[in-house]
Amino acid sequence: MSNTQLQDCVRENLEAYFRDLNGTEPSDMHGMLMRAVEKPLLQAVMVQAQHNQSRAAQWLGLNRNTLRKKLIEHGLAD
């Protein structure tokens, strides 16, 4: 999947979200989106990195301690 395809997927889902709101004001959309995508991102990267946290952190552009904290937050730590 290219970046364009991923962006299109996100955009389409956000458009559906707004339709589902049916005129109701949204709130904390940034937090909602981050919670929705961060866990599957971490899961996929950890699998591809063969659960090597140093490698996964490098791929993600995160400090290893930050990655560890996020893994714990999402219940993905060993």
Can you describe this structure?
The protein is mostly helical and 78 residues long. It has one domain (3-73): Arc Repressor Mutant, subunit A (Orthogonal Bundle), CATH 1.10.10.60. Helix content is 73%, strand content 0%. It contains 4 helices and no strands. α2 crosses α3 and α3 packs across α4. The longest helix has 20 residues, at 29-48. The radius of gyration is 15 Å and the shape is elongated. The model has no long low-confidence stretch (mean pLDDT 94).
Strands, total number: 0
Name given to the CATH architecture: Orthogonal Bundle
The CA-CA distance between the termini, in Å, is 29 Å
- Which of globular, elongated, flat, extended, rod-shaped describes the shape? elongated
Largest sheet: none
User: What's the helix count?
Assistant: 4
